[in-house]
Amino acid sequence: MRSSFRDRRGGVIAVTAVIALAAAASLSACSGSASADSSDNTTLTIAMPSPPISMDPSKSGGTNTTFHLPAYGTLLHDQTLGQPPVPSLAESYTWLGSGPQVTLQVKLRSGLMFSDGTALDSAAVKTSIEHFKSGGGSFSSTAAVIASIDTPDPLTVVFNLSKPNTNFLYGLSDGTTTGMGEIISPTALAGNLDALGTTTDGAGPYMLSSTGTVQGSEYHYLPNPHYYDPSGIKYKEVVIKVIADSNTALASLQSGQIDVANGSTDTYQSAQSSGVKAEVYNTNISGLWISDWNGKDAPALADPRVRQAINMAVDRTSIANAATNGLGKATAQTVPVDALGYDASLDSTYSYDQDGAKKLLATAGYANGFTMSVALPGFVPSAVKIGQAIAAELAQVGITVNITVATTFPEYAKDGRSGAFSAVIYPSPGLTGMSNSYSVLYSPAGVINPQAITLPDVDASADAAAAASTDASQAAWAATNKIAVDQAYSVPITSDPTIIFHDTKVNNVAVFGIINPVYITPAS
Amino acid sequence: MLSRQIREHPLLGGKELLVILLRRLAVSIPLLFAVSFLTFLLVSLTPGDAAYTVLGSSATPDQLAALRQQMGLDQPILVQYLNWVTSALQGNLGHSLITGQSVSEAIFQRLGPTLSLVGIATVAIVVIAVPLGLTSAVRGGRLATSIDTISFAGVAVPNFILALFAIPVFAVWLHWLPPSGYVPLASSPNKWALSLVLPVATLAFGAVGIIAKQTRAAAEDVMSSEFVTVQRANGYARQSIIWKHVLKASAVPIIAYLGVVIVTLFSATVLIETIFAIPGLGGLAVQASSQGDLPMLLGVTVVFTLIIVLINIVLDVVYALVNPKVTFR
């Protein structure tokens, strides 16, 4: 029946294909190169893997501070790991008095203005930082150490701290990403605060434009006409695109669509082989972050010998290679190389020795092992890899690890704060120096110390280190680091590389792995 | 042409069409309530909420309680839902709990990319698959086998695998097409079209095989029926028989499948928009869901439901046009 219809050669498929290709080709011809709208020397285009929680710096932070920095800048700027920051919107800063560092005087540049035309003076700094402190953002606790702020004249701000705090200085800077040093206009703070979630009003070189911006997906910044240093504005437009897929981000860079992107260990090799510039920042540490030092969930963890046995039972080198594709460095301390308090000798404290671990467990009365519970974020691939590897290693010495995987950040945050887990696994919880490690992991107010347990030995050492002079700070924090490692309060595994890809058109792409558009400049 | 068909249609002519449309819309109202309530319930039962998203892991119980009160999350679930419904019925879908952005504004910004993606993919599927299926029904042989293979591959190969192949080839190697992003139609029609080629191709690939296969099966059935034999015996032109009569008689099952395919295309946009970094509703749904942003997620869900309802109504009307035997009861 059908055969009689087959006598004619109807190349419908060919015709359709030809039409489609012709249409695509003509479109390509009309618009020139597919990447013609991308990075020329007047537009800087950056890809980030996720959007900011909010455009309000007091409500957001972490690596997503990249979205705030173009519009707000920071009072201080981090240049060298392990060294104090340098001034940025501030002209200078100094610790007052000869005793412990509790009074910080910051001198502002003259002529600073917010994008709405309001002057950035000492009163504006005070208003912004008090908003940050009371704003309830995830980093607001970093401002808790501020007892009061004085404004003796329009260009001078004096921070009076309740006690010495090494991190405070870094909190005003761009490498630790708390957002405290990003000053918001008092005009905006006196208006509708909700508007700050989707707009900007800072004194940085750029300002968020509503044209082209799609919240959560694409952010367009135009020059701030009131920026104090017009010559510091290097681009006519800065665009930050959210590209969640690391392969797409790399392809966008390779095709010339973007200039800078947060890379991943998975795409590092292909980026390298295709000529893309790749920078690796090992400025964070991943590991098993124990918080059950009193043994509420797993009584065994109250015994330092048990925690030391866990440190001996894990093959850091293998886990580091597997979790970071060989880009991370196995480590037994929570401090990255060259960061404040780093001590190279501590890395050899626990060699991989499962027989020794078993003996130590037996000595502590746990020859048959024990069970501990661990929470980890399932949405962070390297955390899953590290968690599975640690569980497998500890099973070899008789320790059963029950892992609870959270699928979203709110779920993970709830698990982490519940205090129901012996430990959590989370890559890069901001461990950019021992002072950070202390405040995140060991301080009673630490994010990863939900039971608010006091560790007297670490606390005393950290207090002494915070009070030390700038010159003595490194040695003092190294001493705190040694106590934490010797007591095995945590199980550091590997440095967690932050990878930045970029093309040859840009310089100065990142500060400690944080992409900061304020300092990115055209290469030519 | 279409309006004349509607006017002269025994069922769709005059006021009856309006009655049918209103009845369909009325039926969809309980559906909207059911979908929005289930979404509300499921998100509310998920551990963690928007307060944790904003405050992070360092949140103290006092901070959490204060923020929940501010967000209205401290009220019973039913009260929260009724509050949302009351304001939604007044045309206010609320604001994001995270950024404070108006939900309507966010949806409006992202509707264009998603509708462009699904709309063009649907057109591409029809334009490619229907002629392909008809031709293979007429010619059979290798073409029919090829369509079976494409159909099988389309179902078996996930969209993202296709994207992993297409992006390096067409964007990185050949430099023909952009690998990511979306350009609004109003900004540049050319760039808009270019930005959609790869995502649409990835989205439509599997469906082309499925619809082509269904078209072939339906057309083969029709071609073996008596009226086609009679037409051929009476010397009707071959092209006329195939493109006018066979196609029309095969249209009902094709439209039925197309309806299902369009709905699945909307689901697939969630992944496609993520891979190609397109600012659409799918990406917004994923983001809102992962942040516990209830008003935003509810807004997107309601809009998705409305779109699906409208598509079904349109397909019902098209059904009736091609097959007068269809009744709306």
Reconstruct the topology from this structure:
The complex is a heterodimer of chains A (524) and B (329).
Chain A (H helix, E strand, L loop, with lengths): L11 H20 L11 E6 L20 H4 L3 E2 L8 E2 L2 E6 L7 E6 L13 H13 L11 E8 L2 E6 L4 H6 L14 H5 L15 E9 L3 E6 L13 E6 L3 H9 L5 E3 L5 H6 L3 E5 L3 E6 L13 H10 L2 H9 L29 H10 L6 E8 L3 H16 L2 E8 L2 H10 L4 E3 L8 H9 L13 H12 L5 H14 L4 E5 L2 E5 L3 E2 L2 E2 L2 E2 L5 E2 L2
Parallel strand pairs in A: 1-10, 1-11, 14-15, 14-16
Antiparallel strand pairs in A: 2-3, 4-5, 5-7, 6-7, 8-9, 9-10, 11-18, 12-18, 13-16, 13-17, 19-22, 20-21
Chain B lengths: L1 H7 L6 H31 L4 H6 L5 H11 L5 H13 L13 H37 L1 H16 L2 H15 L15 H35 L2 H8 L4 H38 L5 H11 L2 H29 L7
Molecular structure report:
The complex is a heterodimer of chains A (524) and B (329). Chain A has 524 residues and is α+β, with helices and mostly antiparallel strands. Helix content of chain A is 29%, strand content 21%. Chain A has 15 helices and 22 strands. In chain A, the strands form six sheets. A seven-stranded mixed sheet of chain A has the order 8-9-10-1-11-18-12. Chain A has a five-stranded mixed sheet with strand order 15-14-16-13-17. The longest helix of chain A has 20 residues, at 12-31. Residues 1-39 of chain A have low confidence and may be disordered. Chain B is mainly α and 329 residues long. Chain B has a domain at 101-327: MetI-like (MetI-like fold). In chain B, helix 7 packs across helix 9. Chain B is globular and about 85 Å long. Chain B starts with a helix and ends in a 7-residue tail after the last helix. The model of chain B has no long low-confidence stretch (mean pLDDT 85). At the A-B interface, helix 1, helix 6 and helix 12 of A face helix 3, helix 4, helix 6, helix 8 and helix 9 of B.
